[in-house]
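Example 3.2
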Amino acid sequence: AQDDKCGSSPEPLSQKFPNVLIIGDSISMDSSGYVKYVSSLLGRSAHELAQVQHSGGLGLQQAADTKRGLKCIDRWLGGLKWDVFTVNISIHVCYPGSQDPPEAYSANLKTILSKA
């Protein structure tokens, strides 16, 4: 069974533009983060970029930590090939003794990126 906290897969790919998938936490959200700058640089509106901001640890619409990323990456990729793929997941909790210590964070992130 898939984790309900993974949310849905992204919308179908654009035939007109390079396809950009942004997976992240609050720093990448379109209302408060860098999605508005990415869309501006590409000359596109934010809704033309695929974003994954699902189910952070506090019920927020965020991608959460790399453990969640490992569970959800296949759904987030949606079985699609992306022209640009970014991941910005919970670096703020990457420290010794945390829920996502540096060794685990690094290994998990490598696995997540290898799937793209």
